[in-house]
Amino acid sequence: MNNETLVLVIAVFVGLTAVAQIGQLFALLALQKKAKELQQQVTAFVPRAESILDSAKQTIDQSRSQLTELTTKTNEILDSTKTQLVRVDTLLADVSTRAKTQMDRAELVLDDAMGKVHETVNTVHGGVMKPLREIQGVTNGIRAAVQHMLKGGRPNVVQAHQDEEMFI
């Protein structure tokens, strides 16, 4: 290659580089223009975003205070409920103990009453019924003797045979 060709090739490459540099300049200018537009949009949006953030912060602070108040009241209610449940438990234990004691007493009274009734029945049976049976037995014996005497003393053969058959 000769020098002229070499200079020509270098000139072409330098020209292409200059064209590329000019293309980059236009791209950078377009990029700068878009960046300015975006900056203007962001600048217009920032006050609205700040007001939304302020509102959100106020809402969070208010919710935090309400949540703290609600938690405090809930804890008070739970403590009161716990105290009442302890009282109810104590009362139920007391009522249960008293009811058991009363049931035991009622059972003792009932057993005593049943014993006295049984004793009374035995006394009536032994004191009244036994002598009545004895008197009835003696009366039946006397009646049988009187009937036997009225029939003539000794039984006849037919009667004796009949009595024997009944005995057997």
Largest sheet properties:
none
Sequence stretches where pLDDT stays below 50 over 5 or more residues:
none
Mean pLDDT: 87
The number of domains is: 1
The helical percent reads over 70%
User: What's the N-to-C terminus distance?
Assistant: 169 Å
> Structural class from helices and strands?
mainly alpha
Shape, please? Answer: rod-shaped
Order of helices and strands: HH
Radius of gyration: 64 Å
Strand count:
0
| Distinct helical segment count | 2
| Strand portion | under 5%
Structure, briefly:
95% of the residues lie in helices and 0% in strands.
Write the topology of this structure.
Blueprint: H1 3-150, H2 157-167
What would your notes on this structure say?
- There is one protein chain.
- With 168 residues, this protein is mostly helical.
- It has one domain (37-167).
- The chain has 2 helices and no strands.
- The mean pLDDT is 87.
Keywords:
single chain, 168 residues, mainly alpha, 2 helices, 0% strand, rod-shaped
